[in-house]
Amino acid sequence: MMEEMPLSADVIRSLQPYDLRVLLALERLMHRFEWVPVEDLAGATRLSLKEAEYRLGRLIERDLVRFDAVPYRGYALIFNGLDTLALRALTRRGTLRALGSLIGEGKEALVYEGLGVAPVAIKFHHVGQRSFQSVRLNRDYIPERTHCPWIFASRLSAEAEFEALSRLYPRVPVPEPIAMERHAIVMELIGGTTLNRAADLDHPPVVLDDILNAVQEAYRQGVIHNDLSEFNVMIDGDRIVLIDWPQWVGPDHPNARACLERDINNILTFFSRKYRVNRSLKQVVESVVG
Fold first, then answer.
1. Which residues form the catalytic set?
2. Segment 20-37, tens digit of pLDDT
3. Potential cystine with 241: which of 146, 223, 234, 276 (Cβ 3.0-4.6 Å)?
4. Mean pLDDT throughout 118-138?
């Protein structure tokens, strides 16, 4: 899949009411089509074919929509288009006042600064941007044998993460969840940096204990991270924050024990390698589940 340009507030402000009508219709019709024929789009928007094609051209220029002639001539909303619809809805209901700069980019998400009542982070889930089939195989929340394009899988991913944050906050050090719209989550803006990028810690055993205590409390609340490592632990002064929860599973999941052991082993391996702080994996796991 081609890479998209970062989302731009200027592009969003340039959109006209008919442009937004076309974006909303594309979103609805993609429940039925992978590529939406212009005739169906014109009918859904009550625009003439000429006007619909003109609007689609504007949206393609702004990197919000894509056209393909194979397997048939049609149009599809892409992530920037869905991001735009999510931002529009969050702005209209007063959750967001401004979009800031891109501050984080992963395999399956983009994170921007934003401004609501206070500074916030806006996380856009972009699941399957590189390989949707591998995502479908490894995510329980994506239905099998169901028409579920990567755009809509991203919405399911956001729902999963928002549920985890809502369950955990404030008992577990996670970002405070503020709102969700489509595939986007608005949450507390966390300062600092990830554990793998942090300068040498002053008290590594204390930080390790804080992380393991957070893992234990999350388990008590019915949540296992299932992708925990030094890359998604934030260090902000003396505070640790666990981030990136879309792959979480519950303690009743068939692979719950293996998921928990992998999470803990990733953290213990990092502290052993970098700080020579060693703990028994078996003993830590037993203390978490006990």
1. 227
2. 999 999 999 998 888 999
3. 234
4. 73
Class level of CATH domain 9-77: mainly alpha
Is residue 132 very low, low, confident or very high in pLDDT (cuts 50, 70, 90)? very low
CATH number of the domain at 95-188, please?
Answer: 3.30.200.20
Quick one: fold of 193-289? Answer: Transferase(Phosphotransferase); domain 1 (1.10.510)
Long-range contacts, 208-214 (Cβ 8 Å, 24+):
208/267, 208/268, 208/271, 208/277, 208/279, 210/173, 210/240, 211/240, 211/242, 211/267, 212/264, 212/267, 212/279, 212/284, 212/287, 212/288, 214/172, 214/173, 214/240, 214/242
Angstrom CA distances, 228 to 60, 93, 115, 206, 234, stand at 38, 34, 28, 18, 11
For the sheet with 233-236, list strands across it: 193-194, 233-236, 239-242
